[in-house]
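Support case: user asked for a sample of complex input and structure output to validate their parser. Sending the pair below.
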Amino acid sequence: MAYSTQDLATMDSIIKRYPRSRSAIMPLLHFVQSRVGYVDGEGIELIAQLLALETAEVSAVATFYTQYKRKPVGEYHVGVCTNTLCAVMGGDAILAGLKEHLGLDNDGVTADGKVSLEHIECNAACDYAPVVMANWEFYDNQSVQSAKDLVDSMRQGNPKPPTRGPNSLVTWKEASAVLAGLNDGKAHEGVQAGEASLLGLRISKEGK
Amino acid sequence: MSKLTPILSAHWDEKDSFTIEAYTRNGGYKASQKALAMDPDAVIQLVKDSGLRGRGGAGFPTGMKWGFIPQGDNKDHYLVVNADESEPGTCKDMPLLMANPHVLIEGCIIACHAIRAKNGFIYIRGEVTHIVRRLNQAIEDAYKAGHLGNGIDLVLHVGAGAYICGEETALLDSLEGFRGQPRLRPPFPAIAGLYARPTVVNNVESISAVPAIINNGADWYQSMGTEKSKGATLYSLSGHVNNPGQFEAPLGITLREILELAGGIRTGHTLKFWTPGGSSTPIFTQDHLDTPLDYEGVAAAGSMLGTKALQIFDETTCIVRAVLRWTEFYKHESCGKCTPCREGTWWLVQILRDLEAGKGNEADLAKLLDLCDNILGRSFCALGDGATSPITSSIKYFRDEYIAHITQGGCPFDPVASTLFVGAGA
């Protein structure tokens, strides 16, 4: 993978955000994922070179955090929350249903490269349980069937939009660029809040 | 009069609530203007007087934390906002940032001024693409409007999936570009935090509470809450209830009151157990419905207010399955630095798996408690302590159910009965 002059300029601007350059490791790793889809050896070497670190120091960071992938994931990376509350509310059934439907084990990728599947921990959306994430966008209140429909729509190249997110689902690489701190111009899209987020406010306005 | 007091959430029902236009329309960025004209020490005193305590779990007085930053030391000071919301059950900061990122930015400006910091950092969990978008855009817009960039700069730092980075010193290591592992304290961050400089680390909700305190005064904030737990806060109700969601109420409200507002436990079912503040806080039962949900009330009843993450489980839920799953989480998220936590959580999972599968025996319960005893308080941070909470509290309240798994040779529960879509044909 060749990084363009523009890529290198972006990486330089990421480094300049911080008083000390080493702090840029994490956004730079997200940036590598936005270009390659995962963190490869070349990306590690480039970051080490840019930050004047040993490659082992960059690898040590890359391997600590679960969002950095060491092999390709799908264009749409699907995470099913199976922490206790989501698991009990249906997350376990959803994960089992998707594994069977896609013929995948945990961390597997479909042969067409469209969908990968991972069981994930709490995603701070418990009032919307059971929750499924795709490229780290929220799909709230899922069922086994709705989750199957979602991955089918991804394989057909027309993924259903997130519940609380942009108007359409961006790809894994595009989402990784957002996590690197780059603005994709979609911040204004989607709802400001889901129904559960508004429940207390609504009740208080009724005077209860 | 409503029992609820929407302050942070007051404008979440406006479609454009996340924009700088909406925030300004609703009176935003007046508090920072007012605070910037005040002496920094007066701002700290005002926050002290308000009684605001940390909303990230520990409940440490926010103004006092700010006051610990040495002054006139000719060192850079830093503000770091902990937006790494990851405690199971906790879901207050993410909807707050999705609906109103500017209130956090304004709080950061005020806090930076108070502690004489030129740089603030917001460390947000990485698994929330759209909220990163919203916050990033909000920071850009705050720069364009001149709220940022005139002596105070703010950087958004996106994590990458590590619960441990919600621990403040692990967060600092992560922000410095290392593996997120906790530091031994002392020195505390107020003396040697980010880049070994004096640093305040505050939760999103704590910082976001500050603009309203500046606008309305300490007495106004003091007028809400209980004797030692002042103000209002976000309670997050989830699980087997008819209407889950966010409830902003004065500290001291009870679960019974919140459940009444939320339409009660899932129809046809009864409350079995719940967490007052996330999975790291010892569980409660029906007997705690009237416990005041403030720092002292929950502590007196044997748990912790934590993040006010009220996860509700009805009688269809197997306690052993629930506790095993939380324990697997702690094992997965243990950073590996301290042996009691790294090894202990691994052994807890092995024993709980056997128990859930009906392959355990009564001696295993004693072994679990002994392991917990050897984990609690023996590591750098509280992750291992948190891992013991669901185990010791569940054995205290539901020992018989553990025994039932042993005597029946397996789990007596039907997992389908506890799902949201039971009876709906999934």
